[in-house]
Please model this.
Amino acid sequence: MTRILTIQDISCVGQCSLTVALPIISACGIETSILPSAVLSTHTASGFSGYSFRDLTDDMPSINQHWLNEGINFDALYTGYLGSTKQIEYVINIMNTTLKPEGLVIVDPAMADFGSLYPGFNNTFVEDMKKLCSKADIILPNITEASLLTGIEYKEVYDEAYISELLEGLKKLGCKNIVLTGVSYDPSSTGVLAYNGEDVQYYKHKKIDKGCHGTGDIFASSFVGAYLNGKPMIDAAKIAANYCLACIENTINDPAHWYGVKFEPVLPQLIKDIYK
Ligand code: PXL
Model:
């Protein structure tokens, strides 16, 4: 059985990062170990204010040392929101010591959306994230993150040439496989794209205009679940995109649920798609 380690924060309330990654990947039949990078009372996006933040950076080396002492290792590593640049260094150390030699590394450079960095991130973090992405087997950026990683101007309206420029920029950084999310060429549709350094495959689907918090993490976690179950990259991206859409549709008519999406009741659809 595959055992994955996922490193990202726990936002106690707000349906993102570990509170979605752990249930989703586990439901996909994969043993999921966690390393919380920080504990926050809520996510940091709008809607909540004054969140608490406990940085767990200093705990990471001793946690990894204990795993090394116990002979624990992992088949795969998936990183999401990381709380500090030092954490990126520790993640790279875990990759070099605790991940199996042929282990798979999936990095979601979760740091930005809609043209801006999330609160608390700066350019030094972006520079370090470039290093982590260059060591990954697959990265899962959105357009904002791809533009920050490549230094190419962020655009809200663009064409295929712009997307190719982003992909080539990421390839130049050393990224081997790229799944780019939120790729939209017209107002009524959006989609995901998989690039293995040679071929681009695009899956277009309907666009729901309401942005919902945490869907990047839901996409990444369901992608990981599908990919580790043997789905090719574009198929895993398609399954994950369809799951996100279903989660949003399950939530948008409930104004009380503004802080995330109700992904739990839709898990059976994800599992069915993976085992199809
Ligand atoms: O969904 C990414 C994410 C993860 N963790 C925290 C966040 C966000 C996005 O805002 O605030 C704490």
In short: The first strand starts at residue 3 and ends at 13. Residues 9, 11, 16-17, 40, 43-45, 81, 110, 118, 214, 216-217 surround PXL (CB under 6 Å). The chain has a mean pLDDT of 97.
